[in-house]
């Protein structure tokens, strides 16, 4: 994709400090002090988006969900899981916790990496964007947390084999009133406009659908739309309803999966019935279905 663009279209190592609407155009101020003006800025700059701040005035920062996720990853070729399990994802539920163990990587056992994801309720606010940690203390903390939650030894064995850990707080965005500024010179896609918890696995999928939809609607300027602003409103009208619904579903499922006390008892019964009746698969499939076209 990069090769299809003129070289001057791609700029690297230029952090964005601020995005501002200037009426007929938009300005980006870079961290090195440079400023450049563009006809249209599309912010795909993540949950802490500078473009979002320009659209909503910084009035809707990310919110902490009260859920913490500890990810772990083994080196390639680890034998922490049996070969017969490499195509199977295992999950466990406990009081106030949920855990997933799965295997990914390239072809052949020597390229496979085993992964853990431990989700727990944690009211201590944690950062959304943190770095992988390869320290012994990270492993000890993860294993201790798993033992505290009563996770099985087979899952703990995988954690013991991990050499990197990633510990994050789950954040999300409330639904914005508008995804673009009043002048139609700044718009948003992906986590910049609808960061959602990961419990339906839809963050990247929805961002790609946003990108396809906004490109499609902008291509109609001069034909179906008189202005860029009209195209941006059409894009928002197509994409906001499904992303808002998926975000709320992800929040609900995350709270249910990590529920404690009576919530965990309800969860166990509800998930058993949902799995038996095939409802679980339909929920995940519904989230994954593409929704980037307007109604005919």
UniProtKB/TrEMBL annotation:
Residues annotated as domain FAD-binding: 39-249
Pfam families for this protein: FAD_binding_3
Keyword field: Monooxygenase, Oxidoreductase
Gene3D superfamilies: FAD/NAD(P)-binding domain
A molecular function GO annotation: FAD binding
Family annotation (InterPro entries): FAD-bd, FAD-dep_Monooxygenase_BioMet, FAD/NAD-bd_sf
Protein name (record): FAD-binding domain-containing protein
Organism: Ostreococcus lucimarinus (strain CCE9901)
